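Most newcomers find our protein records easier to grasp once they have seen one. Each record describes a single protein and holds just a pair of labelled lines. A learned vocabulary of local backbone shapes supplies the integers on the structure line. Nothing more is needed to start thinking about how sequence determines fold. The record below serves as our worked example for the rest of this section.
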Amino acid sequence: MRDKLPNLSVELKTKVAQLLLENSRDDQLTKGKIKEVALLLHISRRHVTSIWTATRVKIREGEFVIFNTIKWSKHDAVKVDWEKLMSLPYVKRSSYKRIIVEMGVSKSVMGVGFKERLIRAHFNAIKPNLTAHNKLIRMHFCLNSLQYDRA
């Protein structure tokens, strides 16, 4: 299970829990102890409150009060085969949603691909302000590309 407490060190969480347990009776803290511990250890009251809540839950369940830090790493990230994207026909990779469906990945994973510039948007519209000669050259280029794709 992932630790939902703030990103504090294990030692600091344990110290907060010990200080709060020393000042508690029957699962209740004396007034002002959360603020006192927060000022003593230079952390926010919300962090102290969340640690106290987790401590109380563990005590009620009869567990030891042990905090561990499980953080997400890049090793937990979804592996995407970007070569598969390149092998998709152009029609199936024409929009963001189609890429997501064809690749079978989430929007956030595909967003990481855009953010890290592994993939980029491609616009191939003929611009209306091009001259007739430039439109003709662009059309020849597109036709040549299509012929190479069929081969």
